[in-house]
UniProtKB/TrEMBL annotation:
InterPro entries: BolA, BolA-like_sf, BolA/IbaG_stress_morph_reg. SUPFAM superfamilies: BolA-like. Belongs to the BolA/IbaG family. It comes from the Bacteria. Coiled coil: none annotated. PANTHER family: ACID STRESS PROTEIN IBAG, BOLA TRANSCRIPTION REGULATOR. This is BolA-like protein. It comes from Pasteurella bettyae CCUG 2042. The lineage of its organism: Bacteria, Pseudomonadati, Pseudomonadota, Gammaproteobacteria, Pasteurellales.
Length: 85
């Protein structure tokens, strides 16, 4: 499965400000920026992100998915801190 396909699925299914996907060989990591998702518990965030991708887990196209979620403000801070370091 291509990273662009995962991005497309998540963007179409969820109300996200930004989404970034990296990985290969069925192991992927996503960074999701969303004010709405950032207000949910970590478990609910993961369930919400997994839901539109579930058929790809079942088929084996996705074996592992690491999820990091940020509010827009925390994402801005995260990017600034990574640029400085």
């Amino acid at each position: 499965m291509e990273t662009q396909e995962i991005e497309r699925i998540l963007k179409q299914s969820l109300n996200l400000d930004e989404v970034y996907v990296q990985g290969e060989n069925a192991h992927f990591g996503v960074i999701v920026v969303s004010e709405t998702l950032s207000k949910l518990s970590k478990l609910k965030q993961q369930q919400t992100i997994y839901a539109p991708l579930m058929e790809h887990f079942t088929s084996g196209e996705i074996h592992a998915l690491t999820i990091k979620t940020f509010s827009p403000e925390k994402w801005k801070l995260e990017r600034m801190l990574n640029v400085v370091s």
